[in-house]
Structures are given as structure tokens and as C-alpha cells.
Prior knowledge:
Chains A, B: Residues 41-60 bind DNA. Chains A, B: Keywords: DNA-binding, Transcription, Transcription regulation. The structure is a homodimer of 219-residue chains. Chain A has 219 residues and is an all-alpha fold. The first copy, chain A, folds into two domains: 1-61, Arc Repressor Mutant, subunit A (Orthogonal Bundle); 70-213, Orthogonal Bundle (Tetracycline Repressor, domain 2). Chain A is built from ten helices and no strands. Chain A has helices at 2-14, 17-39, 42-49, 53-60, 63-85, 92-109, 111-124, 126-153, 157-183, 190-209. Chain A is elongated, with a radius of gyration of 22 Å.
Amino acid sequence: MAEDAQRSGERAKRLPRAVREKQILDAAVAVFAQHGYHSASMDEISETAGVSKPMIYSYLGAKEDLFTHCIRRESGRLLEAVQAGIKVDVPPDMQLWHGLRAFYRFVAEHRESWTVLHRHALTVGGPFAGEVNALRGRAIDLVAQLVVSQGSRKGLGEQAEFSGKGLAAALVGAAESLADWWLDNSDVPDGVLASWLMNLIWLGFNDLVEGDVWRPRES
Amino acid sequence: MAEDAQRSGERAKRLPRAVREKQILDAAVAVFAQHGYHSASMDEISETAGVSKPMIYSYLGAKEDLFTHCIRRESGRLLEAVQAGIKVDVPPDMQLWHGLRAFYRFVAEHRESWTVLHRHALTVGGPFAGEVNALRGRAIDLVAQLVVSQGSRKGLGEQAEFSGKGLAAALVGAAESLADWWLDNSDVPDGVLASWLMNLIWLGFNDLVEGDVWRPRES
């Protein structure tokens, strides 16, 4: 028994720190996604990761720090996935399409990441919500570039500059809200979500730059 | 002096409870909007309201309860304002238009309400976020009815039933996100926001029910 424990201790020691940290973060994301921040226990994270609590504290800190590490890693992965999905040498609508596809593919494949980022980090609040809002800001900047570039192609650069950031904020809010809805309605294939949004939003935007404007009628 | 205090005490007593509660809630919304939940102090709320702290505790409870009362009152006002803005005997797009106008008018006129509901309640988290999510759910239901009704007018009832709730979630997310963006960009008149959204979203939706579908091209 003692010899076993010693041997497993030696084996544990031999794992590089990066590998250990990955084990811990994978377990933490899973446990936080399932229980939320407040109800998640360090005992369960330790058990799921197969890493002792003292080692978790020493590598990544207590629960609050650990949660921050989770949010940062998952934010980074999400941004990377979306950026990798975007092809820069295609027209703006196709860039948006690829970006949305990559976003919903990420949500489908990393449901726990999205749950932690969108449901838990936002509702726990404080600095965690700040991290997610920074991520949202980067997404809005990315989309605003596409909107302005599409507007400029149509000779409406100035108008697109004026409304671009607001429209991008609306679009990102729509994409997020649809992803959140999808968590509870996962029978819809993830590819369909991107095409709903393109149809809902891009067609309208295209009409707009083509000069086809919706106006309220008398009523 | 003592006589004055006594007289003002009597005057205070004579105010009906509902009036006192309104004074307290008005002050609380203003203070919470300015400082956020955690930094807001009961002293400042008491001072702004001109109501003693013991009276606040006795009428509306301690800080947590008071914040819940604020969220409920502001949610209720927002819903009422939007519902009052919607005319039921006009086509779905005009209903949405009036609803969005009423929503952005409310945000413009009750900036503090929206700040408390959207920025603070969500980021403080816990049961507060739950209240706001319930409000969002009601807004999604309201918009889903419009989407389904527009789809049915065009003979696409079944398709609208399938996608209506998701599209409504996207639309509500877009409206919220744009209102949030507007808090930091209030030089845009509030009437413009509703028309941006109509153009961005409703035209796209209309194209969709008219059979004009966006499809990815080869690239």
C-alpha cells in the first residue's frame, strides 16, 4: 500500500506542470459548468482531475483564482476558434458566415465552456463578468470591421462608420442570445443557427446598403 | 429646534406608506445605478430618499431585499411601457416597431432603471440575474408570437413555429445589446435605435418569408 502510494506519488511528480494544469482546468470547467460557481466544490474538482487539493491551490490558486483561470482559458479558446474559422480573403458576408459557423461549432463541441462563460461567469458577476464583457467587446470590434467594410464596398462608408459599431453590438447580442437559447434547445443542428442569423440579419443589412429601407407606415 | 424636529417627525408620519416606499425606491434605483450593488451604501440611499435607515429596513428590508424590490419595480415598469406601446390591431412588423420604440424610449427616459436591470442585476448574479432572465423570457415570448404570426400570414406557419422562438431570442438579444451599447453612445437619438434594428432584422426576416434566402457561396 505505502509502496503503491509512493510510486503513484513519484509518477504524479513526473508529470510536467502544464499537463497537470490542463487536467485541473478541464475538471474545473466541467464541474463549474455542471454546478455553477457557488455550488461547485474544490473536493469534486480535485477528485475529477485526479489531483490533490493542495496541488491545485499551489498551481492555480483557490476557487476564485481557479474560476478566473477557467474563464481566461475558455475565452481564449473561443476567440481562437472563431478567428481560425474566418477566411480573410472572402467578401464580408462570407467572413461573417464562417465566423458564425465557427462560433456555433465551438459552442456545440465545447458546451461546457460556453455554459461557464455565458451562464455562470456573467451571473456570478464582479470581475468574472468583466472578463466576459471584454471578450464581447473584442467580438463587437471584429464584426464592426465587417459591417464597415461591406458598407464601404457599397459606397456607404460614412453611414457604416456611424452605425457600424451599434449594428455590430446588435449582431453579437443576437448571436449570443441564440447560443444561449440553443443550450436548452439542442435538437436544432448547430449549422442551422448560423444560417438563421445570416438570414435574419445579413439579408436585412444587405437590403439596407442596397437602399431598401424599412419605414413605419401610418398606424 | 426640538419643536421643529417633532413637527417634521409628525409630518413624516403622516405620509402614507406607499409614498414613502416610492421615495425609497426612487433613491435606491438612483444610488444603485450610480455605484453598482456592492458599492452602494444604505447611508446614501437614506440620505437621498430623506428617509431614515430604520424606516427603510422596516418598509423594504436590508440592502439585498431593497435591490430585489428595485429590480421587480423596474422590470414591471419596463414591461408595462413596452406593452402600452404595442398596438395589437396592426401588422406584426408595425407591432414590433412600436414595441422597440417604446423599449428604447423607456431606456432613454429611465436610464437608471436600465442600468440597474441590465448592468448591475445581471453582473451581481444569483437571484437578481434570475429576475432579469425571467423578464427576458417574457420578452422572447412576446416577440415569438409576432414572428409566428408574420410567418403564418405568409403561409409559412410550420417553419415559423420551428424557428420562431430561436429567432425571437436572437432579436431580443440584439435589442438588449444595442441598448447596452447605447448607454455609452447616447449621442445617437433613441428613435434611431429602433429603426436600425427594424432595418437590420425585420427586412431580413421579411426576405426570408418571401423566399429570398441567403446561401453561402463557394469560398
